[in-house]
Amino acid sequence: MLTKNSYVGSPMRHLLMLFLIALALVVACHGSKSAPVVTDWETGSANITLTIQARQQAAPFVWWEAETPSKTSFPSSNPFAPQTKTEAAVLSAGAWVGINGQYSTLPFLEYEVTIPTTGDYHFYTRKFWHHGPFRWRWDDQPWQATGDTVYLMDSSPLRQFVVANWVGLGKVKLTAGRHQLRVELTKQEGAAAFDCFVLTTTPLKPQGKLKPDQRYQATIKDGFLFDPDPDEFMPSPIDLRRLNERFAGEQGFIQRQGEVFIHGNNQQPVRFWAINTSPESLYMDAASLAYMARFLAKLGVNMVRLHGKLWSDQDFRTIAPDTIARLHHFVAAM
What we know:
The protein has 334 residues and is an alpha+beta fold. It contains five helices and 19 strands. A hairpin with a 2-residue loop joins β10 (156-159) and β11.
């Protein structure tokens, strides 16, 4: 159990704050001129017609399709290619590049990408699940590895056992102008597929095949899809972060006093608003992890429980050093 922060105050005050949050969300959604929505393969409903509209505000980004490399050793035929129009609609341009089997050399993809402005960019790719661990680098920068336990930011199935997922690759610093990206698989066997890549100036909010400046729109009878823009965490009267400590343990260890918990230092009572998360959260990129922590704090969450297996399959008494390091990073972010 990971304790984040603690807050105190009257129960009625907390209930009032939560009511105001719910009311603000309802007003914001019904006040929108259009309601975004997703397709039947995302909702289970076949009565929704999907359209795409531009977001009114979107941070700069650079997007390119994975199936159009400048050089590659991937085959021209993709074993995971869409078989129907419905499957093709899941992919950003209706296609992706893929490979499967055994290879004499490591398969690779190369891209020529033009960067409009010098800066630090968040780097993402949309790929086939955990299949196809790979390494990548820009120009002659050091290689970066992406393994088969990478955090999956979303999930968009094409058909049974074939799914596209966004994954975060970290941050890169690039100058304005043309750059070369090289992607190499790190195993000489197995499946892999890539749909697209994107560089963003702000953390990506994945929505399937949509680009950062797009959103879904449709009319849903007696309902709407809650699809807010990424939170910039501007000052707000319904931001509950102020009810929590600046950092967990600021007021000492949590102690029990009768039937309540209290702070060890100031003896003030503590109330917990907790959530569960899975060990997959340990593999989130730093930007996504920081955003999640701040978003939870805004909602008043002050306890996070990591629920799942951390030990190795071979020995339950052993936790891999990499897992421990990621756990420490996760606790620090929370």
